[in-house]
Every structure is written in structure tokens, then in C-alpha cells.
Amino acid sequence: MYERKIIPNLNCGLDLIGEVLYGKWKIRLLWFIHIGHKRPSELQRKIPDASRRVLNIQLKELEEHELVTRKIYPVVPPKVEYSLTEFGKTVIPVIAALGQWGDEHEDRLRDVILKQVVPSLNE
Amino acid sequence: MYERKIIPNLNCGLDLIGEVLYGKWKIRLLWFIHIGHKRPSELQRKIPDASRRVLNIQLKELEEHELVTRKIYPVVPPKVEYSLTEFGKTVIPVIAALGQWGDEHEDRLRDVILKQVVPSLNE
DNA sequence: TCATATAGGGATAAATTAATCCCCTATTGT
DNA sequence: ACAATAGGGGATTAATTTATCCCTATATGA
User: Is residue A106 domain-resident?
Assistant: First the structure.
């Protein structure tokens, strides 16, 4: 894994949650596991924009942070299931709050984001 | 500003909020502005780990995303004040939820993060 | 025999974000 | 004359995160 050169700030709750939730796909992974998509291949189908590789990496970090557990069934072809830990379950309402705010302000957000990303829209 | 080469996903509320809140210091900036630290120099003193430069950049993005406004007083030495917009105020409860979860699980989070960041702790 | 599904990882390149360094303006106080 | 304060930005490098490419293994079905 990549070894950090800059020590992260862990001063307050916001720093701490940032450390475990940052990562392009982590929140989505937690959410999909929460709603019952437990197997890696399912998660992949649900998040087609992410490569298999990145999902594996981010799942491993979530596991290291004790938000999910990984259960391996000794069968062929291999079967793996992720589940939220009790700790992981406690963060679901927070993710729900994030998603709800995003949904409530969807149109406005799309507008301001596109203005910034696609500068030509700023006539 | 940097011009993106990969188009961001804007499919759901989580994608959208991510676009405006990602950025190492943005959430803290919003929070400090919320609790009354409006001037750039104040914000800097509150967030000493960030350079002046990065704060300026992230403040500008928050402004472009219409979460804050920047008011310039025509005095010397210059005086500038940031404030939350009405839109920006709506995201404060979400940030509060993030911070609260982080605070509630502070010890455990510090533990799992340090295990991952400082591998030598994994005896 | 060959493609498919399942799960995973090493090595490397590309993209993105953040940090550093240095510079500018104008006034007030020493 | 010079430092300090207040706000800001260009250019460059470093750090970090994602994406790409390719390879492993076994069993089943066509």
C-alpha cells in the first residue's frame, strides 16, 4: 500500500470521519453493502464506473477501518461476501444525510458543478 | 484552474455533494465560517496546517459553488469577509452530523486509522 | 478446447490535489 | 528605511489517488 509522507490531521471528529470515508467509491460501497449487495461482483455491477481493482482496494481499506467484514466461502468458483460491522452500521445514517441533502438540492448542485467543470457554460 | 480530464459522475445525491464538499479543508472552512470566523486571516489562524494558498483556492471553489459569498470592504489594509449563503446554510446540519459521528467514535477511529497509517502498530 | 464467471493482485501510468516558493499592493507603526 | 498586517496569485513540485494493463486460479457450459 502507499505509505503516507504527510501525517494526517486527527484533531477533531471531522478529521477522523474524513480519514475513513474519503475515497472516490467508499461511501457508495458502504451504501450498497447496506442495502444488500454483498458480493464483489454485485458491487461492481452497481458501480460500473469504477474498475474492479479500485473497488478491491477501497474495500480492503474499509475492512482495515473495521467498517465492513469480509467472509470467504471455501467453494469454487470463489464466493466472498461483505457485510457492515456494527460499527459500520452506525455510519449509515450519516451517509443517508449526505445523500438526502444531495438529492434535495440536485438541480442546483448539478448547475453549479457544471458551471465550474465546463467553463464554456459561463457565457 | 486545473481542467478535468475525467468527467465526474453526477448520478445521485452522493455524487453531487461529493463534488462540492471534497477538498481537504472545505468542510472545516464552512464550519468556521458558520461559527463566525469570517475573515481570511481568522480562518487561517483556525486552520494553521493549511497554507494561505490552499485556503484561498478552496474558498474560491466554495464561492463558485454558491455555498459562500465573499464581501470586499474598500479599505486599507484590505478587509474581506466570507459568509454562508442561504444554500450554504442548508449543508451545515449535514456537516454537524459528520462531525458528531466522528466525535462519538473518536477513540475507535483514532485507533483504526493509526493502525493503517503507522503499520508498525500492527504487532 | 475455449469462453465465462469468480475473486484477487503486481506494476505502472495518469490524473488530481495539495504544498512550496516567491511576488505584488498599500498603510501604519517603529 | 523597514517590518508588520491584510489579502491575493503565478509557477512549480510533491504527494496522493485512480486508472490501466496484464496475470493467477478453478469449474462449468457450449
Answer: yes
